[in-house]
């Protein structure tokens, strides 16, 4: 059995397996004390350590060596020690540093949320609201790039990319072969598909789900609707390539898009194949389970436009109990 160690984060103590990172220990506690993470993704090996949004202060190293760590550290890459004490939202230094990180991430990222498909699901948008300043001190021109088609279903808008590397890890670890990567260094870095070669394999669509911003978007959904006007419903099918467990995003009776299901940390529960994501947009191809529970923090939950009118698929399906409709309305109301 793994050795257990005690860590205290923002005054809340928890025992975790030795080797657990501070970020994952915080996720086990949950709530506001969980540091944001723009590049770490628990299902992608090697991810993390790039964006610095998860910085925290270690005010006590451990019971054996109680000295504080001299600098703020990336919680996604630092393991807990027995007796460690960590400050996240209780440290003014961390809050100030996070503000600086957000300002830096926004140096080149355009403020085009009103026309971006990721709006409402964008981690950078959330961070901007929580930590962003009203104006920018940046005096130079932002980097801009032409949009690039990665195959016929995915579009890369490099102008929005924050170089988190998640999509590169997906291509490396989830698909059969990788045909894109990050070229260049420093401010010359960019995602490249090596002369716009299409990523053509069954799991390439997962780059859309892991992208924390609107740099990689689903061309079958682009500009069709705002996510907060759509209704997420869990469904599954018998798929021979993936788990077949997805979320269908309805507008009225129409399935506008299909995504993997995301957990409380915004990570996919399991990666899905391109056939489920792009080809199965008819309700008849799915077994509907019920409304997707969406965090009340999400702008998607603020959908109160058609509360009295859940999709027929929810109303008519005998497998869905009355309670589900109530739950559907409850989660979309708050
Ligand atoms: S395209 Fe998206 S997922 Fe890929 S590195 Fe840029 S921000 Fe990250
Ligand atoms: S999430 Fe830790 S550095 Fe990006």
From TrEMBL:
<dbReference type="GO" id="GO:0051537">
    <property type="term" value="F:2 iron, 2 sulfur cluster binding"/>
</dbReference>
<keyword id="KW-0004">4Fe-4S</keyword>
<keyword id="KW-1278">Translocase</keyword>
<feature type="domain" description="2Fe-2S ferredoxin-type">
    <location>
        <begin position="3"/>
        <end position="92"/>
    </location>
</feature>
<dbReference type="Pfam" id="PF10588">
    <property type="entry name" value="NADH-G_4Fe-4S_3"/>
</dbReference>
<dbReference type="GO" id="GO:0016020">
    <property type="term" value="C:membrane"/>
</dbReference>
<protein>
    <submittedName>
        <fullName>NADH-ubiquinone oxidoreductase chain G</fullName>
        <ecNumber>1.6.5.3</ecNumber>
    </submittedName>
</protein>
<dbReference type="InterPro" id="IPR036010">
    <property type="entry name" value="2Fe-2S_ferredoxin-like_sf"/>
</dbReference>
<keyword id="KW-0411">Iron-sulfur</keyword>
<dbReference type="GO" id="GO:0051539">
    <property type="term" value="F:4 iron, 4 sulfur cluster binding"/>
</dbReference>
<dbReference type="InterPro" id="IPR054351">
    <property type="entry name" value="NADH_UbQ_OxRdtase_ferredoxin"/>
</dbReference>
<dbReference type="InterPro" id="IPR050123">
    <property type="entry name" value="Prok_molybdopt-oxidoreductase"/>
</dbReference>
<keyword id="KW-0520">NAD</keyword>
<dbReference type="InterPro" id="IPR019574">
    <property type="entry name" value="NADH_UbQ_OxRdtase_Gsu_4Fe4S-bd"/>
</dbReference>
<dbReference type="InterPro" id="IPR001041">
    <property type="entry name" value="2Fe-2S_ferredoxin-type"/>
</dbReference>
<dbReference type="GO" id="GO:0022904">
    <property type="term" value="P:respiratory electron transport chain"/>
</dbReference>
<keyword id="KW-0408">Iron</keyword>
<dbReference type="GO" id="GO:0003954">
    <property type="term" value="F:NADH dehydrogenase activity"/>
</dbReference>
<dbReference type="Pfam" id="PF13510">
    <property type="entry name" value="Fer2_4"/>
</dbReference>
<keyword id="KW-0001">2Fe-2S</keyword>
<keyword id="KW-0830">Ubiquinone</keyword>
<keyword id="KW-0472">Membrane</keyword>
<keyword id="KW-0560">Oxidoreductase</keyword>
<comment type="similarity">
    <text>Belongs to the complex I 75 kDa subunit family.</text>
</comment>
<dbReference type="Pfam" id="PF22117">
    <property type="entry name" value="Fer4_Nqo3"/>
</dbReference>
<feature type="domain" description="4Fe-4S His(Cys)3-ligated-type">
    <location>
        <begin position="93"/>
        <end position="132"/>
    </location>
</feature>
<dbReference type="GO" id="GO:0046872">
    <property type="term" value="F:metal ion binding"/>
</dbReference>
<keyword id="KW-0479">Metal-binding</keyword>
